[in-house]
């Protein structure tokens, strides 16, 4: 059967985590989306720097394999525990560096923006996001708990917000 799908852009969505980092890759063409790949990088090393290195190396390999054009990553948000927020900021830095080294345009979205874009409600819970991602991308099953569905939701959010791409580019300080 002839396949006339020609992608406009390939997007990797990344849901950062210090033990589990979800990723989801989709192609977009004329507002339509097609799933390319998704998964979860899981690290169990007790040494923080080793976890960061493992996540960094695996994201670099994923970028090389699938060659996305753009990266949508979850922005930092409020945590009650400052140590958790600091660690999340550190892993985000490693992930942003890996995407920048891969030549990707990098965009960030808050959890509220992602939830609103995918479900229509900014305070949707994880199960609602998970269900909508499966429906939007016509996926039967998403393994990897919420890390993977959140990463795919980031990529979907990016497609939905492509008119404001230039507003979302991470600026250098």
Describe this structure in words.
This protein has 173 residues and is an alpha/beta fold. The model has no long low-confidence stretch (mean pLDDT 88). It has helices at 48-66, 82-101, 111-119, 126-137, 145-160, 165-168, and strands at residues 9-15, 20-29, 32-42, 70-74, 105-109. The longest helix is centred in the middle third of the chain and has 20 residues, at 82-101. It is built from 6 helices and 5 strands, in the order βββαβαβαααα. A hairpin with a 4-residue loop joins strand 1 (9-15) and strand 2 (20-29). The chain has a single domain (9-168), classed as 2-Layer Sandwich (Nucleotidyltransferase, domain 5), CATH 3.30.420. Helix content is 46%, strand content 22%. It has a 5-stranded mixed beta sheet with strand order 3-2-1-4-5.
Kindly identify the CATH topology.
Nucleotidyltransferase, domain 5
Low-confidence stretches: none
| Mean pLDDT level | 88
The arrangement of helices and strands along the chain is: EEEHEHEHHHH
What is the count of DSSP helices, taking H or I runs of 4+ residues?
6
Strand content: 15-25%
Q: Share of helix among residues?
A: 40-55%
């Amino acid at each position: 059967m002839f396949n006339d799908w020609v992608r406009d852009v390939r997007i990797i969505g990344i849901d950062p985590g210090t033990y589990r980092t979800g990723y989801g890759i989709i192609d977009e063409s004329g507002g339509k989306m097609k799933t390319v790949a998704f998964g979860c990088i899981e690290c169990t090393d007790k040494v923080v720097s080793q976890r960061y290195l493992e996540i960094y190396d695996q994201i670099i390999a994923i970028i090389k394999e699938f060659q996305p054009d753009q990266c949508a990553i979850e922005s930092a948000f409020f945590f009650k525990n400052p140590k958790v927020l600091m660690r999340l900021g550190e892993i985000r830095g490693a992930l942003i560096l890996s995407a920048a080294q891969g030549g990707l345009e990098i965009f960030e979205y808050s959890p509220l923006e992602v939830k609103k874009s995918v479900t229509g409600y900014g305070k949707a819970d994880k199960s609602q996001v998970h269900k909508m991602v499966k429906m939007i991308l016509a996926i039967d099953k998403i393994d990897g708990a919420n890390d993977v569905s959140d990463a795919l939701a980031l990529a979907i959010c990016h497609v939905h917000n492509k008119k404001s791409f230039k507003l979302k580019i991470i600026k250098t300080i």
